[in-house]
Protein backbone atom coordinates (compact mmCIF):
# COMPACT_ATOMS: atom_id res chain seq x y z
CA UNK A 1 0.00 0.00 0.00
CA UNK A 2 1.21 3.58 -0.53
CA UNK A 3 2.16 4.59 3.00
CA UNK A 4 3.80 7.93 3.74
CA UNK A 5 5.58 9.36 6.78
CA UNK A 6 5.22 13.12 7.29
CA UNK A 7 6.94 15.29 9.90
CA UNK A 8 8.45 12.10 11.31
CA UNK A 9 5.03 10.46 11.98
CA UNK A 10 4.44 7.06 10.37
CA UNK A 11 1.10 5.27 9.87
CA UNK A 12 0.48 2.19 12.04
CA UNK A 13 -1.37 -0.89 10.74
CA UNK A 14 -2.08 -3.85 13.00
CA UNK A 15 -0.89 -7.12 11.39
CA UNK A 16 -4.43 -8.55 11.61
CA UNK A 17 -5.89 -5.65 9.60
CA UNK A 18 -6.22 -5.63 5.82
CA UNK A 19 -5.41 -2.47 3.85
CA UNK A 20 -5.85 -2.71 0.08
CA UNK A 21 -2.69 -1.93 -1.91
CA UNK A 22 -4.37 1.05 -3.62
CA UNK A 23 -5.41 2.72 -0.34
CA UNK A 24 -3.26 5.69 0.74
CA UNK A 25 -2.17 6.23 4.35
CA UNK A 26 -0.40 9.46 5.30
CA UNK A 27 1.12 10.39 8.65
CA UNK A 28 -0.82 10.03 11.89
CA UNK A 29 -3.01 7.07 10.93
CA UNK A 30 -3.79 4.14 13.23
CA UNK A 31 -5.53 1.06 11.78
CA UNK A 32 -6.49 -1.35 14.55
CA UNK A 33 -6.89 -5.12 14.79
CA UNK A 34 -9.17 -6.84 12.31
CA UNK A 35 -9.96 -3.67 10.36
CA UNK A 36 -10.65 -3.53 6.63
CA UNK A 37 -9.58 -0.59 4.43
CA UNK A 38 -10.88 -0.85 0.85
CA UNK A 39 -9.49 0.04 -2.57
CA UNK A 40 -8.65 3.71 -3.18
CA UNK A 41 -9.54 4.80 0.34
CA UNK A 42 -7.57 7.84 1.50
CA UNK A 43 -6.62 8.27 5.17
CA UNK A 44 -4.84 11.62 5.48
CA UNK A 45 -3.24 12.08 8.87
CA UNK A 46 -1.28 15.12 7.70
CA UNK A 47 -3.28 17.56 9.87
CA UNK A 48 -5.26 15.64 12.51
CA UNK A 49 -5.15 12.04 13.75
CA UNK A 50 -7.04 9.25 11.94
CA UNK A 51 -8.10 6.20 13.99
CA UNK A 52 -9.86 2.97 13.01
CA UNK A 53 -10.59 0.83 16.04
CA UNK A 54 -10.95 -2.93 16.23
CA UNK A 55 -13.14 -4.64 13.65
CA UNK A 56 -14.15 -1.46 11.81
CA UNK A 57 -14.22 -1.06 8.06
CA UNK A 58 -13.66 1.84 5.66
CA UNK A 59 -14.73 0.86 2.18
CA UNK A 60 -13.56 1.79 -1.31
CA UNK A 61 -13.02 5.46 -2.21
CA UNK A 62 -13.77 6.71 1.32
CA UNK A 63 -11.88 9.72 2.67
CA UNK A 64 -10.87 10.45 6.28
CA UNK A 65 -9.29 13.79 7.19
CA UNK A 66 -9.53 16.48 9.87
CA UNK A 67 -8.33 19.87 11.01
CA UNK A 68 -5.08 20.20 13.02
CA UNK A 69 -5.31 18.84 16.55
CA UNK A 70 -8.47 16.83 15.89
CA UNK A 71 -9.13 13.09 15.90
CA UNK A 72 -11.29 11.53 13.18
CA UNK A 73 -12.35 8.19 14.64
CA UNK A 74 -14.26 5.07 13.67
CA UNK A 75 -14.97 3.24 16.92
CA UNK A 76 -14.97 -0.56 17.27
CA UNK A 77 -17.12 -2.37 14.69
CA UNK A 78 -17.91 0.87 12.87
CA UNK A 79 -18.96 0.41 9.26
CA UNK A 80 -18.36 3.06 6.57
CA UNK A 81 -19.89 2.48 3.12
CA UNK A 82 -18.46 3.15 -0.31
CA UNK A 83 -17.53 6.73 -1.07
CA UNK A 84 -18.27 8.27 2.33
CA UNK A 85 -16.33 11.29 3.62
CA UNK A 86 -15.48 11.65 7.32
CA UNK A 87 -13.92 14.96 8.39
CA UNK A 88 -13.00 15.58 12.02
CA UNK A 89 -15.89 13.49 13.34
CA UNK A 90 -16.54 10.46 15.54
CA UNK A 91 -18.36 7.37 14.26
CA UNK A 92 -19.57 5.52 17.34
CA UNK A 93 -19.18 1.86 18.19
CA UNK A 94 -21.22 -0.43 15.94
CA UNK A 95 -22.55 2.53 13.87
CA UNK A 96 -22.97 2.54 10.09
CA UNK A 97 -22.31 5.40 7.67
CA UNK A 98 -24.10 4.84 4.35
CA UNK A 99 -22.67 5.11 0.87
CA UNK A 100 -21.62 8.62 -0.23
CA UNK A 101 -22.64 10.16 3.09
CA UNK A 102 -20.64 13.11 4.45
CA UNK A 103 -20.03 13.60 8.18
CA UNK A 104 -18.54 16.96 9.12
CA UNK A 105 -16.29 18.36 11.84
CA UNK A 106 -17.28 17.87 15.47
CA UNK A 107 -20.20 15.60 14.59
CA UNK A 108 -20.66 12.60 16.87
CA UNK A 109 -22.60 9.66 15.50
CA UNK A 110 -23.56 7.67 18.59
CA UNK A 111 -23.28 3.91 19.02
CA UNK A 112 -25.48 1.63 16.91
CA UNK A 113 -26.76 4.45 14.67
CA UNK A 114 -27.30 4.24 10.91
CA UNK A 115 -26.60 7.28 8.73
CA UNK A 116 -28.46 6.81 5.44
CA UNK A 117 -26.72 6.82 2.06
CA UNK A 118 -26.02 10.34 0.70
CA UNK A 119 -26.87 12.03 4.02
CA UNK A 120 -25.05 15.26 4.85
CA UNK A 121 -24.33 15.47 8.59
CA UNK A 122 -23.54 19.06 9.58
CA UNK A 123 -20.72 20.12 11.90
CA UNK A 124 -21.27 19.51 15.63
CA UNK A 125 -24.26 17.22 15.02
CA UNK A 126 -25.13 14.85 17.86
CA UNK A 127 -27.79 12.21 18.41
CA UNK A 128 -28.94 9.47 20.74
CA UNK A 129 -27.81 5.89 20.35
CA UNK A 130 -29.62 3.65 17.86
CA UNK A 131 -30.88 6.56 15.72
CA UNK A 132 -31.74 6.43 12.01
CA UNK A 133 -30.25 9.60 10.49
CA UNK A 134 -31.35 10.73 7.02
CA UNK A 135 -31.34 13.72 4.68
CA UNK A 136 -29.32 16.77 3.73
CA UNK A 137 -28.99 18.33 6.18
CA UNK A 138 -29.33 15.12 8.16
CA UNK A 139 -31.90 14.73 10.91
CA UNK A 140 -32.88 11.91 13.21
CA UNK A 141 -35.89 10.18 11.68
CA UNK A 142 -36.57 7.67 14.45
CA UNK A 143 -35.07 4.99 16.69
CA UNK A 144 -33.75 1.86 15.00
CA UNK A 145 -35.39 -1.48 15.64
CA UNK A 146 -33.43 -4.38 17.08
CA UNK A 147 -33.87 -6.12 13.70
CA UNK A 148 -32.19 -3.21 11.91
CA UNK A 149 -29.31 -3.16 14.39
CA UNK A 150 -28.86 -6.91 13.94
CA UNK A 151 -28.82 -6.45 10.14
CA UNK A 152 -26.08 -3.85 10.47
CA UNK A 153 -24.06 -6.15 12.73
CA UNK A 154 -24.41 -8.98 10.22
CA UNK A 155 -23.01 -6.71 7.50
CA UNK A 156 -20.06 -5.68 9.65
CA UNK A 157 -19.39 -9.34 10.37
CA UNK A 158 -19.25 -9.96 6.62
CA UNK A 159 -16.55 -7.27 6.31
CA UNK A 160 -14.63 -8.74 9.23
CA UNK A 161 -14.65 -12.07 7.40
CA UNK A 162 -13.61 -10.23 4.22
CA UNK A 163 -10.55 -8.97 6.11
CA UNK A 164 -9.58 -12.58 6.81
CA UNK A 165 -10.37 -13.68 3.24
CA UNK A 166 -8.20 -10.90 1.80
CA UNK A 167 -5.29 -11.70 4.09
CA UNK A 168 -5.55 -15.39 3.15
CA UNK A 169 -6.43 -15.44 -0.56
CA UNK A 170 -6.34 -12.05 -2.31
CA UNK A 171 -3.56 -11.93 -4.90
CA UNK A 172 -2.62 -9.87 -7.91
CA UNK A 173 -3.33 -11.72 -11.16
CA UNK A 174 -3.83 -11.36 -14.90
CA UNK A 175 -7.43 -11.58 -16.15
CA UNK A 176 -8.61 -14.57 -18.15
CA UNK A 177 -9.50 -13.91 -21.78
CA UNK A 178 -12.78 -15.83 -21.55
CA UNK A 179 -15.19 -17.17 -18.95
CA UNK A 180 -14.29 -20.71 -17.98
CA UNK A 181 -16.88 -23.51 -17.99
CA UNK A 182 -18.59 -24.07 -14.63
CA UNK A 183 -17.17 -20.83 -13.26
CA UNK A 184 -17.52 -20.89 -9.45
CA UNK A 185 -19.31 -18.18 -7.50
CA UNK A 186 -17.60 -16.53 -4.56
CA UNK A 187 -18.95 -17.85 -1.27
CA UNK A 188 -19.31 -14.66 0.80
CA UNK A 189 -22.28 -15.74 2.90
CA UNK A 190 -25.93 -14.86 2.36
CA UNK A 191 -26.18 -11.23 3.54
CA UNK A 192 -29.06 -9.44 1.78
CA UNK A 193 -29.88 -5.73 1.45
CA UNK A 194 -32.33 -4.37 4.00
CA UNK A 195 -35.34 -3.61 1.81
CA UNK A 196 -37.28 -1.74 4.45
CA UNK A 197 -35.54 0.38 7.06
CA UNK A 198 -37.14 3.78 6.84
CA UNK A 199 -40.73 3.06 7.81
From TrEMBL:
<dbReference type="InterPro" id="IPR050484">
    <property type="entry name" value="Transf_Hexapept/Carb_Anhydrase"/>
</dbReference>
<dbReference type="InterPro" id="IPR001451">
    <property type="entry name" value="Hexapep"/>
</dbReference>
<dbReference type="Pfam" id="PF00132">
    <property type="entry name" value="Hexapep"/>
</dbReference>
<dbReference type="InterPro" id="IPR011004">
    <property type="entry name" value="Trimer_LpxA-like_sf"/>
</dbReference>
<dbReference type="InterPro" id="IPR011974">
    <property type="entry name" value="PaaY"/>
</dbReference>
<protein>
    <submittedName>
        <fullName>Phenylacetic acid degradation protein PaaY</fullName>
    </submittedName>
</protein>
Amino acid sequence: MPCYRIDGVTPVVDPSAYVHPTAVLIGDVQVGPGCYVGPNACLRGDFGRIILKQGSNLQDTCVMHGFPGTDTVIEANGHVGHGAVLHGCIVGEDALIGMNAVVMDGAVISARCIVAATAFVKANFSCNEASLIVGAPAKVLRRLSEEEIAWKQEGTGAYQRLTERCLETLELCEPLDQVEANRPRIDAGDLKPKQKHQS
